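Please, structure for the following, as tokens.
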Amino acid sequence: MNPRDRLATAFLLAAGAYLGFYVFGLVMGVFSPGEVLYFTIPAGILVLVLAVLSIRKRRGAPPAEEEAIRDEHRLREKRGF
């Protein structure tokens, strides 16, 4: 794994943690989105960024790489995990 991939992984984990705690706070009724716009705005931006990244990654994979991923999944299904 190169440093760029590690940085991207760290960003995705941090963004997921932020969104997880934000949604947890909303569900538990700790705050409402209007009360804490300084948390709501970054959460909305992170959702958009994660959506764009996932779409770009899905569409940007070369066919050979997608086939390798499918082969890996097939092998896992045969092994049972």
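The two ends are 23 Å apart (CA to CA). The first helix runs from residue 3 to 28.
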